[in-house]
């Protein structure tokens, strides 16, 4: 089992006391991930998936690539250390090659921090680093090893609303692969467990810190119930919401998992 499957097993078994999640080891024929067996012997199909933002996921991988120096760039021109924030679709290889020069120009204008939304009209160097490298903000930093530019992983922005989470769940529920696996299961209940990654920022923050949607999610016939789960600030704590087409969302609660219950996820 992968990380998310281990997490699904641990959380659902905590929520449903005395139930057991049986992992389907042979999934070559498009089988769902788990059979959830309730204490009364009833069996429910469970499929596990992750809601993420693919473009941000690729950017994070490019930033953290150890073959290219990880999240740091060595400087040759800059007199100070920097911490920069690229846009989600920024070209990280181009940033690695040119950030030192562009930040040197920013230093020459006497800046120790910048934000494109406020400074592009006043400083040509800020305009260039935003337009040509996709870096929206930065500040002087002090790293343990000097002579470096740190690259932040990108986040999202915008108004946080319950609909952000609702839309993310409905996208996962409508994916053909998830629908097919649960349709073939043939059980009376068919659950989709959605781990909401912080890379899908607006949906993640809506789940971690927001209010539940007032309307139930629009689920296809193949899915009777859906779970929305993410971290709650600590590694071993998770926010868990659950919904069905007709009954709407309910807050299952803040679930705490120890290392044993997570099976070392």
Polypeptide structure, described:
The longest helix is centred in the middle third of the chain and has 17 residues. The protein is elongated. Strands 1-2-3-9-10-11-12 form a seven-stranded mixed sheet. A five-stranded mixed sheet has the order 4-8-5-7-6. It is an alpha+beta fold. A hairpin with a 3-residue loop joins strand 11 and strand 12. 34% of the residues lie in helices and 27% in strands. The protein is built from nine helices and twelve strands.
Outline:
With 265 residues, the chain is an alpha+beta fold.
Write the layout of secondary structure elements.
Layout: H1 3-15, E1 20-23, E2 34-37, E3 43-51, H2 54-64, E4 72-74, E5 81-86, H3 92-108, E6 113-115, H4 116-119, H5 124-133, E7 135-141, E8 148-151, H6 162-174, H7 176-185, E9 190-196, H8 201-209, E10 225-231, E11 237-244, E12 248-256, H9 259-262
Parallel strand pairs: 3-9, 5-8, 9-10
Antiparallel strand pairs: 1-2, 2-3, 4-8, 5-7, 6-7, 10-11, 11-12
Helix pairs in contact: 3-5, 6-8
